[in-house]
Amino acid sequence: MKADKEKRRMISRDAARRRRRVESEVFAELSRLLPLQQSVQDHLDKPSVIRLTLSYIRMHTLLKGITGKKAEASHAVKCEQVMESGEEWRGCDRGRDDEEKKTDDVEASEETNMFLRILEGFLIVLSTEGDMIYLSDNVSKYMGLTQTELMGHNIFEFTHPCDHEEIRNNLRLTAEEVWCGAKRDFVMRIKGALTHRGRSSNLKSATWKVLHCQGRAKVCVAPSSVSCLLLTCQPLPLSHTLLSTHTFTSQHSMDMRFTYCDQRITLLLGYSTEELLGRSIYDLCHTLDTNCLTKNHLNLCLKSQSVSGQYRMLVRGGGYVWVESHSAVIPSVRPSKSRPGAHQPLCILCVTYVLSGVEEPSLQLSLDQTVHRYLR
Amino acid sequence: MSARNAAAGGGDRARGEPAEDVLVEENQSGSVSLPSLMTPSSAACMSLSMEMPRKRKGSLDNQDTKSSSIPDADMEDIQNRSDGEDQNVKIKCFREPHSQIEKRRRDKMNNLIDELSAMIPTCNPMSRKLDKLTVLRMAVQHLKSLKGSASSFSEANFKPSFLPNEELKHLVLKAADGFLFVVGCDRGKIVFVSESVTKILNYSRAELIGQSLFDYIHPKDMGKVKEQLSASELYPRERLIDAKTGLQVQADLPVSAARLCSGARRSFFCRMKYNKIFIKVEEKEFQASTSKKKESQKYCTVHCTGYMRSWPTSHLEMDGDGEPDKQDSSYYSCLVAVGRIHSHSSPQVNGEVRVKPIEFITRFAMDGKFTFVDQRATTILGYLPQELLGTSCYEYFHQDDLPHLADKHRKVLRSKDKIETDCYKFKTKFGSFVTLQSQWFSFVNPWTKEVEYIVSTNTVISYDPGRTSRSEVKSELSSSSKTSEEDGNKSLQVILGISTTPGAMIYAGSIGTQIANELLDFNRMNSSSSSGSISPFSLPQDKCPQTHNQISNNMPNGGATDMEIPGKSSSEDEPQGAAFSGGESLMVENSQLDLDSVVGPGLSSLSNDEAAMAVIMSLLETDTNLGEAVDFEEMHWSS
């Protein structure tokens, strides 16, 4: 009896082992088909293999919709131009051989790499459920986690819980929005596993990184309707290089009242730095932009960094200019032994770029402007 | 993987809370608002917060570095146990039975397999659920077929990327809405521009390459761009902002060569031309900008970010230009940058008026005084913004609408929602009325939660048929004045003490202040511990009119039937008719005797004390107004 049981157990164990082996082989075969480097392929675990396979299939479907017809169309246009201008155009698809295609491919790759490098960000393709279908491979530079570690996972696993609501709102796409290629622009916090020096650490010691995400919706209709978001994600820098006379910096208390302003503002907006102290930025902007500023302020309070959209700041005495602000919350600095005098409460630091000249200089829109007009 | 899986597979924990497998409660608020938990101090923590929640190893599908030969469950256990320091994880290990971990792993795997089968075309039609192995095998087949169709070439030294390069390029450009460009620093010659520029600026590559960038930049921004391209020491140096201190730090780097060589970063905005008409490229004759009419040129704001780069000229093929960089003869320096369009809000071009619906925006201080008036108001109301600024909105509302608007005013100060008013009449400069309907909301500073001002979006519902000239208005009103004089007299009797037109006039303006004061009082009374302290003004209801009476006697009782509206800055012959009509109509309506009609509609909703206080304050207000604003000498009397 006992021997029988033993025998049965052994058979089932062998069967199980065989099944596992077969399964592992199939997994290995699948991983070899993925367009990844051999070293990476060998080290993938089973769930990762499936994740990446899913990503590959989804991207393939998506891209067929994006690049299929359009690529042909753009080729045709190019050819037309070629014929008209008489210039030689490598993009034209007449009689291209493999050699040319390869060079094109290399060019495309270089251009893309350069693009991403200059942009200082990475690309992400998100499904409407938040699955990160695709990430460009430079994501490791910003998040410390590699493309293969992240692809196929859900973005909600990596972002700050308080931002989930906002992300969900942004992922929601109506049919109309998708067809118009609706734009998206928002700020979110994501886990970054990088040390100060930029080396990858592991997820356990990850810190929050603030990302500015911009992009648009995309749909592909055949074979199945799939819509997703294409976003570029840029970490917001904490230090800015200012090289222009058309920018100024300012510091604000947390309620957005000025506590300091650099003197460039006098040249650009007419206010002296003293008269701005204590004034709220909401008084100094065009009412139609209240929403934009509020969003910016909220982002700052919640996420500690933000990029405003373009808004109008009223110029002293009349008119307004279009500006864009990049801001961050500076943690409070308490006097320490090394710096006994330095005390700074929690405050907001803004770098504002002035985009336009003064528009409608004779138009007074706010009470403030009328006062300034008549006072000297 | 859906969020559900994330939850199942050991979701995030915020701030290292006790290690229960609970999905963090998310902010349920519909709008983006500061969570109620957020206090200034916790915000400080948050901005400093670098503490990461501990993440279970399992949720990253185990470590990617280990091969899958070792049974997963064991691996995880070993990992967890080796995490000696991590108390939470240890506790979790003990709390959670092994079987749970295993179950979760299996569930995850099953979900993945299900998703995979949904994606593979051959699996889909199958009615019954396929087993794992079959799905995997089909996946292998599918991948093979996909790879077969795509144009691929395998080169050993070619680094494979997950996506074919062309496709990736398309994706990036689609997402970023940008174009790559390289311009020479000496003269701004466009050396290279990517194809995507066509979609953005509507110029073809051929049109742009070789041209000067300055031909495509808004004239006022040329100085800015020149500065960015130049390396001259005359221009401001780099200013960096130290993240820790928030102070500006002057970069002490030597300016000349260092700035040009690798990596000096540039970031600026400039306005670039975009081509509205699609023109076929005819190379010889086509000039980018000079032949175009400047006034029809449209610009869009482009955010350019990039690096300075320099190459030795010997490495470049200079096609006949030949002139080397002035500063450094052997190097050709360029800006390599990406230009992106942000279109957050479409700027209103001068003169463009949105046709429907006709609306304009205004801002009031809490007491109803205009602090901001959109220029569109002028075409609708006749007043220039500066004529309205500083005056109270109540001076322009038709008397019929005062009650309900005052009520909405009260509401909006106390609520976070947008309040819609009913249609009401607003007096234009010419004396006629337009019917408006507005949406008000009180703008609250996100940090302090205090009301800063009220924003009003006003839509025009209808104009009064025919705007009358002043003379007509006058005659109209004088005729109506005759008929209403009797009423006016009647109401004079009925309304004790309050008076005559001057008082009523000012009263209109003070409604707003009153409402604002009510709010302040309300807040004050709420914030201070409500003891049963009786206000010094506690008077029973019936006494109020008397009090009223007494105080009103102090007011100069001009018998004036019309007078200039205080607060209006103009001293010329402002439509007396208008003033007249305003006062008149007010009188006509208020025929009942009670606090409501005399002082303010809806006042009876407040308690006696508050009511009394409000009355006093309004009268004090009018008193002050009389003191400063009105110069009786200048009053115009109707003839």
UniProtKB/TrEMBL annotation, chain A:
Presence of the UniProt keyword Transmembrane helix in the record: no
GO cellular component: nucleus
Keyword annotations: Activator, DNA-binding, Hydroxylation, Nucleus, Repeat, Transcription, Transcription regulation, Ubl conjugation
Region (Disordered): 88-107
The organism's place on the tree of life at top rank: Eukaryota
Any Pfam family: PAS_11
Biased composition (Basic and acidic residues): 88-105
Biological processes, Gene Ontology terms: cellular response to hypoxia
A GO MF label: RNA polymerase II transcription regulatory region sequence-specific DNA binding
InterPro entries noted in UniProt: bHLH_dom (IPR011598), HLH_DNA-bd_sf (IPR036638), PAS (IPR000014), PAS-like_dom_sf (IPR035965), PAS_fold (IPR013767)
Localization in the cell: Nucleus
Domain PAS residues, every copy: 111-178, 253-305
Domain BHLH as annotated: residue spans: 7-60
Keyword match Cell wall biogenesis/degradation: no
Protein name in UniProt: Endothelial PAS domain-containing protein 1
Automatic annotation (TrEMBL), chain B:
Domain PAS: 165-229, 367-416
Compositional bias of kind Polar residues: 26-44, 60-70
Feature: compositional bias, Basic and acidic residues: 78-87
Record-annotated BHLH domain positions: 93-146
Region (Disordered): 1-87, 466-488
Molecular function terms, GO-annotated: DNA binding; DNA-binding transcription factor activity; protein dimerization activity
Gene source species: Perca fluviatilis
PANTHER family: CIRCADIAN PROTEIN CLOCK/ARNT/BMAL/PAS (PTHR23042)
GO terms under cellular component: cytoplasm; nucleus; transcription regulator complex
UniProt cross-references to Gene3D superfamilies, sorted A to Z: Helix-loop-helix DNA-binding domain, PAS domain
Record keywords: DNA-binding, Nucleus, Repeat, Transcription, Transcription regulation
Domain of life, source organism: Eukaryota
UniProt protein name: Aryl hydrocarbon receptor nuclear translocator-like protein 2
Compartments (UniProt record): Nucleus
